[in-house]
Write the structure tokens for this entry.
Amino acid sequence: MPVYSHSRLSTFENCPLQYKFSYIEEVELEEEEGVEAFLGSRVHDTLEKLYQDIIHSKLDPVEDLLSFFEELWAENWHDNIVIVRKEYTAEHYKATGRRCLSDYYKRYHPFDESKTLALEKLVTMEFGGYKLRGYIDRLSHKRDGHYEIHDYKTARYLPTQARFDGDRQLALYQIGVEEMWGDAESVDLIWHYLVHDKEIRSKRTPVEIEKLKRDIISQIEIVERAEAEDDFSPRESGLCGWCSFQVLCPLRAHMVKTKPLPVNEFLKEPGVKLVNRYVELREEKRDFIERFEGELEKIEEALLAYSEREDVDVIRGSDKRLKITRYAKKKLPTKSDEERERLDKLIMDSGKWLDVSDLNTSTLLKALESDDWEPELRQKIQRYLIEEEGYRISLSKLKERES
Ligand code: SF4
């Protein structure tokens, strides 16, 4: 049975296909690392050294710590580090790391707010028949029975307090701390958003912890159902640019394979040629239709004016006669209109609804996907649906980092 973790579940939530590559097929690709992850690791390592030394009664001066960070940076830097945001260089990221550390140092010096119990601490939990685990960046305590779980973040995006109050990762670690230390009466969850020099705190009640366990169990059940049905659809998002499996992903493989090609090879690549021709034809078609519709509209207006001026409703052409029939158009109030509701009710109450209503495929499919209808009914309806191979082609602009 697999051992689950917050990051394992998050990977599935972000993209089931990425989960499959990572955890089912355990695909190993040539090591590539985003500069953001590299920065995060070096800052974590430096803070680990700071507290490791404090445990041994040695308080490093900030200059030593920054030198340690710079050495780590130089020793670990490699050619496969990817900088997705082209407007920034490695030096910008390194300067950010230095700033994170010196701000942190200034804020917490002399680091005596609490006592560090463990660094990079492995915590394990077991509930609902599942095993989970995680690593706490720093576990500390203020007094007996009062624990603090610290997490360091170097992300530039600062979530709202509501997100922290609903965060799964540290609350999960709280379960581990409570299981591993019987004296844990209260646990503070603390995030250090180093880029913003900000500390955010949150707490969980026993009721919230029980709900969290239930949510995690149902998420694991979703993951295991996907595994049983081998159903791992790719889910494209802003995170794709940082995904190591782009080269294997049907939504990204062609993009990443063709991006480095020299222009002449790129333009000869069969897929590129097809898309470019398709775009040309679609644009020609759109221009033609616009021109054609514009002309048709103008002629219709001229015909109406002619028929009024000459007081005729039938006009002769060379091979065809054209007849203009004028009538008053009737239409229904739109669905958002209150009048529409009254009309629907009137027809339903009269028992004539079935005479005028018709089953609409897209509305029915939407209803089948929602949870509003009973599962049993949805299952029965599914049997009547005829499955056909279909496709939809859509065009969109290349995003900044794809072009
Ligand atoms: S590139 Fe995006 S859609 Fe494809 S596997 Fe990775 S995260 Fe999923």
